């Protein structure tokens, strides 16, 4: 527990350092934080809109974001970066749980530390971990369900199994790309007792999975009944239909290449590892040969990647690196298992694991510095400070502008409104926020 708490504090500090001045506030974040500011009974029955039309298949993302707003928000005037801090807290808690799970499963603190440090400090992931964004929440929930499966919750009491399977489905509620992890978790819950000859546990887990899926999908089913004509991810269903019908080709090689690109983009950049695709393939073969008796470990480590490559081969639209965020814990674990598997003695395995951990720690500063160049909004602190000044002065203003350029989907009046400020369109004064956080006023001509 001491090591787990230390990992929690360390990863949390990396994620939230300076968040009040650099928080990424775009249109999606404002939309979702506005929803979290509502009463619980006014939350949507589905998740956030997807770029392939429709919505994610359940409201778990908004449930969790609402809980963050209720618990963390009041300490920070309900400002949006409270949501980022809440997500970072959950991410670091998931890292600690994964550390404990790998440690107990493999009996090696060093392998567990190496895996968690590498996956938690990937620059792309690290830059987005403390923001309000459903793919990162899906990644966090996927990490939790992987940890619970490594802790054999699917073999324990029905309540524990329901939690493990429920978290897997909630990850898909948050982000559809986590479906490949969910498939691996459900498969492990069924195949593991089947291979062990435990028919009673197999039947129990099948019933629990069915019950969990039904219970968590009730909100989505209600939404579909109320909106029967609304498209549900038509780009995905259309792509699959085109491939199955023969109108389009299966893009298996392109999908495999992009999986490798995603691993590089999330876990390896700013460096480049030649032949990284072959490294992943060889690692998979080694893990398959070494851990073929451990069905659960094998399934949750390898199935997400295999399913993602197969699944995205049917997807005809462009792929993006963030689609694969929830798959990274499995990928990092697979490589770590391969590096520590073929050694001739336990002492050498122990030495390799320590070397991996030391190496992971040594590169953290460079990875964090690179992360701070990605997906940041350094103007956020100036907007927050100026908005507080404007609210404190109580002067009626017609609009708020900035002297600096903001992303197209940002609204410089948003923070002012959360703090209680009111925009008066009859006022002749327009406030302009400087990069320093100072405020100047300009009178509208003719008013």
Can you tell me the residue ranges where pLDDT is under 50 for at least 5 consecutive residues?
none
Give average pLDDT, whole number.
93
The backbone outline, from C-alpha atoms, is: globular
The first-to-last residue Cα distance is 65 Å
Q: Which structural class is indicated by helix and strand composition?
A: mainly alpha
Number of helices: 20
* Structural domain count: 2
Beta strand %: under 5%
How would you summarize the topology of this molecule?
Blueprint: H1 2-16, H2 19-22, H3 27-36, H4 60-71, H5 81-106, H6 109-120, H7 123-128, H8 134-150, H9 158-174, H10 179-195, H11 199-226, H12 234-245, H13 252-268, H14 276-290, H15 295-312, H16 328-340, H17 346-362, H18 364-371, H19 380-393, E1 399-402, H20 414-418, E2 429-433, E3 439-443
Parallel strand pairs: 1-2
Antiparallel strand pairs: 2-3
Features:
single chain, 447 residues, mainly alpha, 3-stranded mixed beta sheet, 3 strands, 3% strand, globular
Describe the structure.
There is one protein chain. With 447 residues, this protein is mainly alpha-helical. It folds into 2 domains: 2-371, no CATH class; 380-443, no CATH class. 63% of the residues lie in helices and 3% in strands. The protein has helices at residues 2-16, 19-22, 27-36, 60-71, 81-106, 109-120, 123-128, 134-150, 158-174, 179-195, 199-226, 234-245, 252-268, 276-290, 295-312, 328-340, 346-362, 364-371, 380-393, 414-418, and strands spanning 399-402, 429-433, 439-443. A 3-stranded mixed sheet has the order 1-2-3, covered by helices on one side. β1 (399-402), α20 and β2 form a beta-alpha-beta unit. The longest helix has 28 residues, at 199-226. It is globular and about 80 Å long. The termini are far apart. The mean pLDDT is 93.
């Amino acid at each position: 527990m001491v090591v787990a708490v230390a990992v929690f504090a360390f990863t949390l500090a990396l994620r939230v350092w300076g968040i009040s001045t650099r928080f990424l506030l775009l249109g999606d974040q404002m939309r979702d934080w506005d929803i979290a500011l509502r009463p619980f009974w006014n939350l949507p029955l589905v998740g956030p809109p997807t770029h392939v039309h429709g919505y994610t298949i359940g409201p778990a993302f908004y449930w969790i974001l609402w809980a963050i707003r209720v618990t963390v928000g009041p300490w920070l005037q309900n400002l949006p970066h409270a949501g980022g801090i809440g997500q970072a807290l959950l991410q670091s808690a998931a890292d600690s749980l994964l550390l404990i799970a790998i440690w107990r499963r493999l009996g090696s603190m060093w392998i567990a530390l190496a895996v968690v440090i590498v996956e938690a400090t990937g620059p792309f992931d690290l830059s987005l971990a403390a923001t309000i964004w459903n793919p990162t929440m899906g990644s966090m929930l996927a990490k939790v369900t992987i940890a619970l499966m490594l802790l054999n919750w699917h073999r324990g009491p029905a309540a524990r199994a329901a939690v493990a399977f429920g978290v897997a489905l909630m990850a898909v509620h948050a982000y559809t790309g986590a479906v490949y992890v969910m498939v691996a978790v459900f498969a492990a819950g069924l195949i593991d007792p089947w291979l062990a000859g435990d028919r009673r546990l197999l039947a129990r887990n099948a019933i629990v999975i069915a019950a969990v899926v039904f219970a968590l999908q009730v909100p989505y089913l209600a939404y579909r009944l109320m909106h029967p004509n609304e498209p549900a991810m038509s780009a995905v269903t259309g792509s699959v239909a085109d491939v199955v019908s023969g109108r389009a080709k299966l893009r298996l090689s392109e999908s495999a290449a992009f999986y490798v690109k995603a691993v590089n983009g999330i876990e390896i950049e700013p460096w480049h590892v030649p032949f990284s695709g072959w490294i992943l393939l060889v690692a998979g073969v080694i893990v398959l040969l070494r851990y073929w008796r451990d069905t659960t470990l094998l399934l949750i480590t390898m199935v997400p990647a295999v399913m993602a490559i197969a699944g995205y081969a049917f997807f005809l639209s462009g792929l993006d690196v963030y689609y694969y965020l929830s798959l990274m814990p499995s990928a990092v674990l697979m490589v770590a298992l391969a590096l520590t598997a073929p050694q001739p003695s336990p002492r050498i395995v122990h030495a390799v694991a320590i070397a991996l951990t030391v190496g992971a720690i040594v590169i953290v500063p460079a990875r964090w510095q690179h992360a701070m160049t990605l997906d940041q909004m350094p103007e956020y602190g100036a907007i927050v400070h100026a908005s507080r000044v404007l609210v404190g002065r109580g002067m009626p203003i017609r609009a708020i502008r900035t002297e600096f350029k903001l992303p197209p989907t940002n609204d410089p009046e948003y923070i002012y409104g959360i703090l209680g400020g009111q925009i008066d369109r009859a006022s002749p004064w327009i406030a302009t926020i400087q990069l320093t956080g100072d405020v100047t006023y300009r009178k509208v001509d003719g008013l």
